[in-house]
Structures are given as structure tokens and as C-alpha cells.
Design a protein that fits this description.
Blueprint (H helix, E strand, L loop, with lengths): L2 H5 L6 E4 L6 H10 L3 E4 L7 H13 L4 E3 L7 H11 L6 E9 L19 H16 L4 E8 L9 E7 L5 E7 L5 E8 L3 E5 L11 E6 L2 E6 L5 H14 L1 H22 L3
Helix pairs in contact: 2-3, 3-7, 5-7, 6-7
């Protein structure tokens, strides 16, 4: 059975698209045209104009869209946000977010420009997404750089700085030929919060959060959670809840806009 056959099936109401990024717009548009709700892997598309076109079409046809950044739905992040609300480490000065991994095989789509490769669209998207969640609605890009080694036509690593109206700063770094890092550190006026596996906690992994204030340190164990299931459940809720669907549109738009701003700075 072909992809088109699946999209023509009247018994299918929603579609999950895990294709390489450069194919997202084409197949998402085909699916929306067949009145299917869409759960789309990150990045949503490879440019802002395609993202806006899909959002506009989905809104007009009352269809749900969800960009599958699963870490957003893990209780690890929810616990960190609660600690910040409780001012455990005082006023926030800086968020430090690092996500990168060792070089994969040459035929991996992440290193293929035609297929939508590049560190920003892959691991960089995670870092930017987390930064905007922590900084809130006023998050804005202050600086960014993408590095293109001579033997590649894609960005292999990069970094960015974002800021909000409360003068909180987020420094993010990402790369696809790096020693593995998946870390979040939050630096406050009274202490720090640290955790690893912030993006990649599997359903049976028990995350830990380290809180340090002066010479005292506390380690919190967070109950394991299924971020994969939670993300799918959120998508299901978007299908049935108009307000949540609108929030999803806005989050997708914000992410795509920031990523494109970074892409344009060379």
C-alpha cells in the first residue's frame, strides 16, 4: 500500500509523518488536503513560509497540527518549572542548554542538505524549543552562529543566545559531530539546578535533578514517564479541543520563526 492509498482511506482520521524534514511540507499538505489531522516530526518544515501555509490550511479546515517535541511532555520538565516558580534558586540569571551527539553514518539524512539536514533543524531545534519554554512569551533571539565545515554543505554545529523581558538569558549549543551532551543548567542568584537527559529520557529512565545552594546539594529523583505517549495524547487532545489546537498552532509558528531567524544569520 502506498502513502497515497493510506491518505485516501476514509477510515484514517489522523496521520503521523516521520519523514526527512524536506518532505514534511509536501506530505503534510497532501494529508491535510485529505482532511487528516497531522502529527509531524520535528522540525515541522524547513522554512517559515511552508509552516505558515500548513497552519493556515489546517485552521481553515479545522484540523489539528502537532510538532513532536516529546520532551515537552515529560514530568521532568514540569518538575523543573515548578522549582523555578517556587524560587528555589532565587532570581534566574542564565539557562545553559547543550544538545549534541557523535558523528553518524554519512548516509544519515541529517547530513544531506537536499533532505533538510543540518544541526539547527535537528538537535538545535530541541535547544531552541526548551529555551523559549523557559524564557516565556517574550523570548527573542539576540545572537546566533552556525558553522559549516568545508567538507559539508550543512551546518554541523552552532550556538545562540536568547533573552526575555526579565533580563534572563538562555545560551544554547548544539552539534552533530560532538561528544554527547543532553544537559540543562539553570544559574540563579542563590544556586543552580542541573539535569541531563533533558531531551532523551526513555519511558523506563529515572531522571535526576541536582539542586546546589552554596555548599549544600540535593538530588531529586523524578519518576519515569512516557514522553512518547504523552505527546501523542496531547495531539489527540488537540483534535478534540479547539483552544488547545490554537495553542499548538502558535507554538509551531513561534518555533519556526526563531529557527528561520537563526538560519538567516551567517
Amino acid at each position: 500500500m502506498s502513502y497515497d492509498d493510506l491518505l485516501n482511506d476514509p477510515n484514517i482520521d489522523a496521520v503521523y509523518l516521520p519523514l526527512p524534514p524536506a518532505l514534511h511540507y509536501e506530505w503534510a499538505f497532501k494529508a491535510l488536503n485529505k482532511k487528516k489531522h497531522i502529527l509531524l516530526e520535528k522540525p515541522f518544515t524547513i522554512n517559515l513560509s511552508d509552516t505558515l501555509a500548513l497552519i493556515t490550511f489546517a485552521k481553515h479546515n479545522n484540523l489539528a497540527l502537532h510538532e513532536n517535541y516529546m520532551f515537552v511532555f515529560h514530568r521532568q520538565l514540569q518538575k523543573i518549572q515548578l522549582l523555578l516558580q517556587q524560587n528555589i534558586i532565587g532570581k534566574i540569571r542564565e539557562y545553559r542548554i547543550d544538545f549534541g551527539f557523535p558523528k553518524r553514518t554519512e548516509n544519515d539524512f541529517r547530513y544531506n542538505k537536499t533532505l533538510g539536514g543540518g544541526a539547527l533543524l535537528d538537535c538545535g531545534g530541541y535547544s531552541i524549543k526548551l529555551a523559549t519554554i523557559l524564557l516565556g512569551d517574550t523570548a527573542r533571539l539576540m545572537y546566533s552562529t552556525l558553522k559549516y565545515p568545508e567538507e559539508y554543505d550543512i551546518d554541523l554545529y552552532g550556538s545562540a543566545i536568547l533573552e526575555n523581558d526579565m533580563n534572563e538569558i538562555a545560551k544554547v549549543s548544539f552539534g552533530m559531530d560532538n561528544a554527547y551532551k543532553c544537559d540543562l543548567e539553570i544559574w540563579g542568584s542563590l544556586g543552580t539546578i542541573q539535569t541531563n537527559r533533558i531531551f532523551t529520557a526513555s519511558h523506563n529512565f529515572t531522571p535526576t535533578i541536582r539542586i546546589k545552594k552554596g555548599s549544600e546539594a540535593e538530588v531529586l529523583s523524578i519518576e519515569s514517564d512516557d514522553q512518547f505517549y504523552n505527546s501523542i495524547d496531547y495531539f489527540y487532545q488537540c483534535i478534540n479541543d479547539l483552544d488547545l489546537r490554537q495553542q499548538s498552532y502558535q507554538a509551531i509558528h513561534k518555533q519556526s520563526k526563531l529557527v528561520e531567524q537563526i538560519q538567516k544569520i551567517k
